[in-house]
Write a structure and sequence with these properties.
The chain is mostly helical and about 450 residues long. The chain contains 20 helices and 2 strands. Helices cover about 80% and strands about 0% of the residues.
Length: about 450
């Protein structure tokens, strides 16, 4: 009885700690996206043409995505060899420290391009940490879950990511109540410096979480790969590519909403930046609430079905969203954010944790998920605002070409997720050996 109570307590603790830890981690990461859309060109690249300044700002944003695969592979190696808990704790500490330091950087006005160089370096550190966070968080929570609740458990860090986005946007929204001079002088720094306090809370919480039961059993059985990444490349290339291309559409549509269209509406359409932050916050709030709902649904009808519906919803919503932006309809844009984030992206984001976890055995799960997911982000997520800026400029301010690109990526993801198999069930992974895990041809 005591053991059962302890297990139940640990499951509650892993849910709470994963939610809070992931919230803080992704708050740190996402606030940079808001800054890159609204402030970076003025703060760090004011000496160049406004369009090029925006591109430079987005390039700085993209650097984190380019190094996230490295962070994912390194963390995956450590997570699959020494454990999920230690790796996640250090990724959190590194992210919090880098984010706090960004808030203390000198701008172009006081230090020229020195501040920009330091900004890029700290953004790289953020990227390495974020690369470690995603795979570790979902693997840790899914491996603590019962078979019948993996979808719900896996949705927890996904929902937390959007709570982090919501907190970041609301913090910046509060800062926009300042006059423009105060906002540019010090107001933009506040969300970053707040990370220092959040860091202390997160360290305390994450340090209390037990190691993943699946990893403990795999280690006890001696099933620890010396080079997990090589095992993934050699034995699971189809699964790796499946994760990479399946995640392309969610990455593309999310950063279309959260970064590219915010920048476009403020800089090109001259819409109020506070209004745009509110629109994103509404979409993020709806998604945060819908993710666990979809997680429960994925446990009932299957992860793949929920994910496929999410891609379809993204494609369905693309054209109305594009038309709303063209018409400068704020109500239409808010509705677009709610649909794209709260309906389409939420379905993909909620189901992918358990779906992707099923694709790899315990011994390489952290590495396989991290590598595929982060490579997808480096190719389709980070460069997305730059792609948007270039395609919009090519079309002389029009956005239809860019939305056509987003829909093309959606079709690629739909094909990828339909073709991605076989899969591994977590049932039977107690022994930790791939041969003991139940290989299945469809997602349960």
């Amino acid at each position: 009885m005591a053991s059962t109570a302890s297990t139940a307590r640990q499951k509650r603790l892993i849910i709470a700690s994963t939610f809070i830890g992931s919230t803080i981690e992704w708050y740190d990461f996402f606030i940079f996206g808001t800054v890159s859309a609204l402030f970076l060109n003025k703060l760090f690249f004011p000496a160049v043409d406004p369009t090029m300044g925006t591109i430079f700002g987005f390039m700085t944003f993209a650097t984190a995505w380019l190094v996230r695969p490295i962070g994912g592979v390194v963390a995956g190696h450590l997570g699959d060899r020494i454990g999920r808990k230690t790796t996640l704790l250090w990724s959190f500490i590194i992210m919090g420290a880098a984010t706090t330091l960004i808030g203390l950087l000198p701008t172009y006005e006081s230090a020229g391009y020195v501040g920009a160089v330091l900004l890029v370096l700290l953004r790289i550190v953020q990227g390495l940490s974020a690369g470690a966070e995603y795979g570790g968080a979902i693997v840790a929570v899914v491996e603590h879950a019962d078979e019948s609740r993996r979808g719900l458990f896996g949705s927890v860090p996904q929902s937390a990511a959007f709570f982090g986005l919501l907190l970041g946007n609301l913090t910046f929204l509060a800062m926009t109540t300042l006059d423009k001079q105060a906002l540019m002088n010090w107001g933009w720094r506040v969300p970053f410096v707040l990370s220092a306090a959040m860091l202390m809370v997160g360290i305390y919480i994450r340090n209390r979480v037990a190691e993943s039961p699946a990893f403990v059993k795999a280690k006890a059985a001696g099933n620890i790969e010396k080079l997990p990444v090589m095992t993934v490349l050699r034995e699971f290339p189809r699964q790796l590519l499946g994760v990479l291309f399946a995640q392309a559409a969610p990455n593309t549509f999310f950063y279309t909403c959260a970064v590219a269209m915010v920048s476009y509406a403020v800089s090109k359409l001259k819409m109020n930046q506070a209004d745009m932050l509110i629109a994103v916050s509404i979409g993020a709030a709806v998604e945060m609430l819908m993710i666990p709902v979809y997680g429960i649904l994925s446990d009932r009808i299957g992860r793949r079905k929920v994910f496929v519906w999410g891609i379809a919803a993204l494609l369905i919503g693309a054209i109305p969203f594009c038309l709303a932006v063209e018409a400068r309809s704020y109500a239409g844009m808010v509705a677009g954010y709610v649909w794209v984030l709260g309906v389409g992206h939420a379905a993909c984001h909620s189901s992918q944790a358990s779906l992707f976890s099923d694709m790899f055995p315990t011994s390489v799960r952290y590495t396989g998920i991290s590598a595929g997911y982060q490579m997808s982000g480096a190719i389709f997520g980070g460069p997305l605002p730059i792609v948007a800026t270039i395609l919009i400029a090519y079309q002389n301010g029009g956005i239809r070409l860019f939305f056509g690109y987003a829909m093309l990526i959606g079709l690629v993801s739909l094909i990828a997720i339909m073709a991605s198999k076989p899969h591994y069930s977590l049932v039977g992974s107690a022994g930790g050996q791939r041969g003991r895990e139940h290989q299945i041809n469809t997602v349960p």
